[in-house]
What does this fold into?
Amino acid sequence: MSAIVDKPRRSWFGPHVRLYLGMVITALVVGLAVLSLVWTPAPPTKMRIAMKLKPPLESGLAGTDQFGRDIFSLLMTGAWNSLSIALISVLIGVTVGVALGTMAAAKRGFIEEAIMRFADVVFAFPAIISAIMIAALIGSGALTPILAIGLFNIPVFIRVSRALAQRVWANDFCLAAQAAGKGAFRITTDHVLPNIAGGVAIQATIQIGLAILVEAGLSFLGLSLAPPSPSWGRMLGDAQTYLSQAPWMAIAPGIAVAVAVLGFNLLGDGLRDKFDPRTEGGA
Amino acid sequence: MTGIFLRRLGSFVLTLLIASLLIFACMDLLPGNAAAILLGTAARPDTIAALEQQLGLDQPAYIRYLSWVAGAFTGDLGNSASYGVPVAGLIAERLAVTLPLAALALLLAVALGTPMGVWAAARWRKAPDRIASGFSQIGIAIPDFWFGLLLILTFSTGLQWFSAGGFPGWQEPASGLKALVLPAVALALPQAAILTRVTRSAVLDVASEDFIRTAQAKGLTESRILWRHAVRNALVPIITIIGLQFSFLIAGAVLVENVFNLPGIGRLAYQALSQRDLVVIRNVAMFFAGLVIVVNFLVDLSYLWLDPRLRARR
It folds into this structure.
């Protein structure tokens, strides 16, 4: 209890442990994903009915699925698909969100109010609901999760970049730039953006983890990439049918999702602790 | 005080209005024609025209929007094309599963996450803090629907304590509740993890404030300082997250209801999509968005009640 009145800033699970663990896990996931482009233990989409539903190690590292496809190879290719969708959708969120967020910080008044109200409205749509609406309009495919997750990320980055930009605007060098006759747009590009880039990148790392989680859910429902493109979520969807027969089909893809999300979260938290101790507060 | 309340009320109504316009624009204007989508590509133009008239699609857009909004107040949301019953009744029927499920999950998450976060903060940097930190990092990373599959593997196919899915209805409350236990646990895990994290850092933030030192100097007992002063003042962020979590639980139910085959509103949304039932999708989407907006508004109001300092501001 005495600990509670000490200056409680750094958590035990220290910044370095988190940062390095996050870096190792993320590098592993990204590495396997990139490797899948040139090499997988077996061709991931090749069906081998004679080999179907083999448990781990009997055929391949993680066994085979209902079509005899090698699960570990599917996981590797799935990593690439999952990461690319997550990355593109977070980039959409960053681009639109930071543009609007820094504009809100620069313009204040009515424009700021309108942008923040817009953020509230978009924030009211859980990604899965936007995905269902988008899928009703354009059908399922890679574009559905990209748009749904991208949309859901926009208000996140509006809020983060506005808060960070407001801090920069309070600095003397912004005042000096104003006095020198620079306009709000120039000050934003010359001074605000370079100063908030780090904070935005940290948030983006965490959002990539979240995007992987949401994409897995969407592809579990069949709202993402169409077969035969391997995807972690759909592997889990298929596994449900064979749950008692082949439980390994359900276990491996879930571990893949959890490990990837954990890696990006640890990396984001670690970076935040290292570079921005003011907002530290994660467990 | 009244000024702040009116301001919040105004922005609440405005947000609802914009959200409804957005949904209407997406579901009613963009895809060209709901009747054509319903009937498929092979439909003859006169059949489409007849269905259009039946659905009221021949009316101008603003009339259709206004009658939808008016219907929301009178409970007449139109008929589901695939179920052939009023949508309002359909949503109400499905909520009888989803609301208890979300409430049970929230209860579990709060019962697990809050004490764990307080415990971690009180034993900061000691073993309990490490355990809580590890739990929250892993809990946040685990997909809830996958955790549901693992629960089915363990407690249904393995131990056979619970059925693997389905819902027997509320005629027998005990068996209805039993069917919701595993899905609620699956939904609660990531939320408990988030709550642990938020509670811990909220209590730690408060712990460095002067009034904690004052309380200590007054010679209050440690548990009194922790619960009466630290936790009480950390309630604002905790309540915010709990409020947000309720809406996310309802949305997260889309996945978990599909895993456990529960006839809830999330499964309704999913089924409506596979049947291209745009009337249902539009209303369910509005329900979800409206819920988030209403909960945010209530959370906003609770700040005023919880933190007297905010009443004076602005």
Notes: The domain at 17-275 of chain A is CATH 1.10.3720.10 (MetI-like fold). Chain A has a mean pLDDT of 85. Chain A touches chain B through 53 residues (CB under 8 Å). DSSP finds nine helices and no strands in chain A.
